[in-house]
Amino acid sequence: MNLKFNNTTKKYKSKIALNSFSAELSEGIYALLGPNGAGKSTLMNILAGLLKPSEGDISLDGRDTVKMGREFRDILGYLPQEPGFYPAFSGLELMEYFSELKNVRNPESRIKELLEFVNLTEEAKRKYKEYSGGMKRRLGIAISLLNDPKILILDEPTAGLDPKERMRFRNIISRLGSEKIVIIATHIVSDVETVADKIIFLKSGSVVGFGTMSEVLKIAEGKVWEIKTAQSDADNYALEHFNSNVIKRDNDVILHIVSDEKPFSDAVAQAPLLEDVYMYLFSEKSEKSEPQ
Ligand code: ADP
Q: What is the per-residue pLDDT across 96-123, written as a single tens digit (0 to 9) for each?
């Protein structure tokens, strides 16, 4: 598959929500990372056909996705941030309802298989409104997989989940296989760093980083530093400098800093983590220096 975004742009009066997004995606798991307002939902909604781009288009294997119409919707799975499922329905009833809407063949066996996949078989007859956040999310994933989509979009899929639920979610995503294009929009680095094949950083509607993990880690190479220091010094520094955090390691207090310049003569350079790249790209300093 080749999913090609061609200068996809969305403007609201003077505001550019998505600025000439161009990318080519093939089978794999993509993380779309950026802070609130970066344009992630805008991009997802355009791909899902719910929002019309102001400029540009999207094609799948050379065919315009808007012109494909129903044919494109049939191969798409989309879990929005707020799916708005009927709260009084049970998980099973919701699965049955959406199976009909999506014209799923052999719904019974598909529903059974998916409930097992997301580990909800035991809870299938409970009402949706009684589900925990994690169970709601897992049901949402199961519903978005009913039509065995070739392209799966998950918008902030881990919002409100506890650490154990997040781990479950990551396990489900990593088992989705390599035949789909999966796009996960999130601002939570740890949700995607172990599952994503490629990472797209979106900032104020523009792509500021795109590549495999090792490629995007290079963005912060030579810009991550650590220094052992006293608690009070570390706290004072971290308060003033947004790009730093204080880490306790054994009995030491370590100041972890993301900075172009070596911040202290005895600071030691560190290999960047994805979190550092995020800090580097989305720090207050780079927000301020950006032309408005
Ligand atoms: P994200 O999903 O990354 O949080 P969004 O795609 O929701 O970002 O929003 C991108 C930008 O577009 C934001 O600045 C947002 O305020 C703006 N925006 C989104 N929808 C509208 C709208 N209907 N009218 C005006 N501005 C909008």
A: 999 999 889 999 999 999 999 888 999 9
Residue 260: domain span: 219-288
Atom of ligand 1 nearest to the CA of 42: 6
Q: What is the 158 CA–ligand 1 centroid distance (Å)?
A: 20
Per-residue CA distances from 43 to 3, 88, 137, 153, 288 (Å): 13, 31, 21, 10, 24
Structural domain ending residue among the three candidates 164, 196, 218: 218
The pLDDT tens digits for 16-59 are 999 999 999 999 999 999 999 999 999 999 999 999 999 999 99
Cα separation, 45 vs 8, in Å, equals: 12
CA distance 185 to 54: 21
The total number of structural domains that make up the chain = 2
Domain with residue 25: its CATH number is: 3.40.50.300
Cα 50 to ligand 1 centre (Å): 14
